[in-house]
Amino acid sequence: xxxxxxxxxxxxxxxxxxxxxxxxxxxxxxxxxxxxxxxxxxxxxxxxxxxxxxxxxxxxxxxxxxxxx
Length: 69
Description:
mainly alpha; TAT_signal; single chain; 0% strand
């Protein structure tokens, strides 16, 4: 079978669209990689930062006991 000119044109348009999308995605990734994020800051108050967090509960004791084997 023989393709007519309209089918060839549609195929070329589709290829150029896909090529453009690929280049756009690569460009966006390159820009995102070069941007630097601001350093994260703690949202806790000073009182929350110094409070005791570790609690040796029964499941923690069991975890330690099982890992000593």
